[in-house]
Amino acid sequence: MPVNIIGTALIEGTDKIPYYNELKKAFPYVLAISAIKFWSRGATNTWERNLHGKVYILTGATTQGMGTAVALDMARRGAQLIILTRNCDEWSLEWCEDLRASSDNNLIYLEQCDLNDLHEVRKFATKWLDNSPPRRLDGAVVMSGDLEPGLSIPLLPKPVRRSSKDGLEVQIATNFVGVFHLLDLLQPSFKAQPPDRDVRIIVTTCMLQAMGSVNVEDPLWQKANYDSAVKFFASSKLQLSLCMLSLQRRLLKATHKDGRSGKNVTVCLVQPGIMRSTSLRRFVSNGSVLALIFVYSFLLYPLLWLFTKSASRGAQTILHALMTPELEEINWKDEQVKYIVNCTMSKYSRKEFEDVELQDTLYDNTSKQILELEKRMALQRNKQKKAQAKGEGKKRPA
């Protein structure tokens, strides 16, 4: 078809081409839209790595978005995936079966671990560590996140503070506290891996972290007023990123009997870009179904399609971090946590990323307050069990 059109234009002239004038007028607009879309889709991971036999823990993989795209790519490369999910219900089990069938990989398992519940996080980590010899672990890919609707718009529902099972603000609990607790508890597993095993801890973050605040004295934000959902989201991402820098230093300073450096375990922060994700839909619609249908789907979607990434395109930066040889021990030029944006090493913008003392203090205070909160919740659970047992005893016939 294109050959016929070109031949007609050269031999008989452009006047013989149907709708030539209309096509001529539309061509600049089509070219401009194509150029913008090519730019907004972001870079593509160009590294290839065989993941056969490797074992990874994934969070946020059941989103039917970026997380699912990453899990599918890793599964197709032969990786064994331990996918943490909030509920092991009928839907998640069916999703897992579909992933196994799509990837032709049966080494995909679901483990119930709600990051909103510190007790569940500890149960999973304890079960993982309670194995001799230590279980193989080639890395953890953290893609879970929660962006609450937080815009005060007339005629739409007023944003309210949602709490986790431990009473924390849900974004702080999901994006920061739960992930921090999981990786902190899994430190012995990371340190126990052989020195020739390339272990990668990949944590996704967001550009909104530049708007966040660091609450060193109250890192769980238990005493903070809920004045802005965006503030809590941005702060949760910023605090997690700062703690990851401290985690890397702790892994390097670990005492190894065989004298190895510990550089085989690397922590990496990844910013996948703005995607048409569940969180974006929820934020734009402010949690309203009507706004989701009319504002997001009809009014804004053409612009969002043009200027934002799809889920599979956002996954490219995570896959780059997983496969690039730049994070291998032999290629390390320093001991800093790498920040990857659009498949490229980038620099941090906030001054807090240069403050080592702040990062370590934030890490220590977070760990301490999580332990205190766990103790309080354990006492509360025991009281509830006793009250329940007492109530059941009264109901029994004499």
Automatic annotation (TrEMBL):
Judging by the UniProt lineage, the source's domain of life is: Eukaryota
- Swiss-Prot/TrEMBL keywords: Coiled coil, Membrane, Oxidoreductase, Transmembrane, Transmembrane helix
Ranges in a coiled coil: 363-390
UniProt cross-references to SUPFAM superfamilies, sorted A to Z: NAD(P)-binding Rossmann-fold domains (SSF51735)
Q: Name one GO molecular function term.
A: oxidoreductase activity
Spans through the membrane = 283-307
Q: What is stated as this protein's family in its record?
A: Belongs to the short-chain dehydrogenases/reductases (SDR) family.
UniProt protein name: LAMI_0H00386g1_1
